[in-house]
Specification:
The chain is an all-alpha fold and 231 residues long. α3 packs across α5. The protein is globular. The longest helix has 29 residues. The protein contains 11 helices and no strands.
Length: 231
């Protein structure tokens, strides 16, 4: 496969063949942006201006706190809270039309996230590269088909991207290949969840009970449905 500056990061995501490659792509991007924002970037004026304005969603606050830089997170929160004060509560007390405007501003502020925006921007371009490689590179097509799983939301995202980034001839074939990966894992998952349920029948009790691959099937089902591992 011919590699360039856009294809190398995508190839690196697909090579491990472990779980959903698009989840790995998203996780890698989130990790990099979180490292960036909790590092020296927090003191860069242009970055700080954006984090003050956008803030972060709950999952990404969690990721930031796991970096164990509590002072850095506190500094980001200090200036973001000041910005929230200006965006939402500047002006006279809540009254009539002003109350509606304040509520709208509060909703916009609480619904935005700097990391989500950065990750979405990068994901859009990397998924376009996935489509280009699948359409033009036989080796990548084989690598794609060798993936063990594709979660449901990322199956949808890939097929939607293919509809705008691939030729009308290639897009249906790509969609079928993606559906095969997604449905194959669904078949395995359904079997494991059903087996887990059956193991609670008294007839299957005992020290030598065979749980097979079902013990973590609940967590895997949640992941497959949402892209996020609850464990």
């Amino acid at each position: 496969m011919r590699e360039d500056i856009t294809s190398i990061p995508v190839s690196e995501v697909f090579e491990p063949k472990d779980g959903c490659p698009i989840c790995r792509m998203r996780d890698t991007l989130e990790e990099r942006v979180t490292d960036y924002i909790t590092g020296a970037a927090m003191m860069e004026p242009d970055v700080r201006q954006e984090t003050n304005r956008l803030g972060f969603c709950y999952p990404h606050y969690q990721k930031m706190l796991k970096k164990r830089n509590r002072l850095g997170v506190a500094l980001i929160l200090e200036s973001h809270l000041n910005e929230v004060e200006k965006q939402v509560f500047a002006g006279p007390p809540v009254l009539g039309k002003n109350a509606k405007k304040q509520a709208q501003s509060a909703g916009q502020t609480s619904g935005s996230c700097f990391i989500c925006r950065q990750v979405d921007w990068a994901m859009e371009r990397m998924l376009a590269t996935v489509c280009r490689l699948w359409e033009n590179e036989r080796d990548f097509r084989r690598l794609f088909e060798e993936q063990p799983a594709l979660c449901l939301p990322h199956f949808s995202l890939l097929v939607e991207t293919a509809g705008t980034r691939m030729s009308k001839k290639a897009a249906p074939d790509f969609a079928r290949a993606a559906a095969k990966l997604c449905r194959s894992y669904l078949t395995e998952l359904r079997g494991d969840v059903s087996h887990f349920c059956r193991m609670f029948d008294y007839r299957n009790a005992g020290e030598d009970a065979d749980w097979g691959n079902s013990k973590d099937s609940i967590e895997r089902a949640v992941w497959w449905l949402t892209t996020r591992d609850p464990s």
